[in-house]
Amino acid sequence: MKTTLYFNKWLLIAIVWFLASIYFLFFKSSGNPMPIPQFDKICHFCLFFGQFWLLAKAYFSAGLTIPQRLLLISAIIWAATSEIIQALFTTRNGDIMDAIADLSGAILALWLAQQIQTARRNGSREKY
């Protein structure tokens, strides 16, 4: 059984997504107030959902088991770090609710990816 993730298109997209998230979280100004209350929380949720979906997709498209614990720990570290950086070094504010939205997006992506991977494995076993 393979255990090492090699470079694939999903990993490349995840890297590009991560670099884009750095830009949007730290360098792009927040601009005008959003027309939808708590729209920034939706953006945080989607940003982390996309990031961790792409990482999980890189694993299961390579036929590897998704390292749920590793990716969840990475999500926690990245959410906390991004909010601390925003609070200390940018014109934005660090917000615990943003971190909760971040983690909610990551957790949903990892859960969904795990469900798909499990269904695919069970489906392939039933064929034989």
From TrEMBL:
Residue ranges occupied by any VanZ-like domain in the UniProt entry: 27-113
Q: InterPro entries under this entry?
A: VanZ-like (IPR006976)
Keywords of this entry: Membrane, Transmembrane, Transmembrane helix
Q: Where are the transmembrane segments?
A: 7-27, 39-58, 70-90, 96-113
Q: Which domain of life is it from?
A: Bacteria
Q: Could you tell me which NCBIfam families the record lists for this protein?
A: vanZ_1
User: What is the protein name given in its UniProt record?
Assistant: VanZ-like domain-containing protein
Query: What species is given as this protein's source?
Result: Snodgrassella alvi
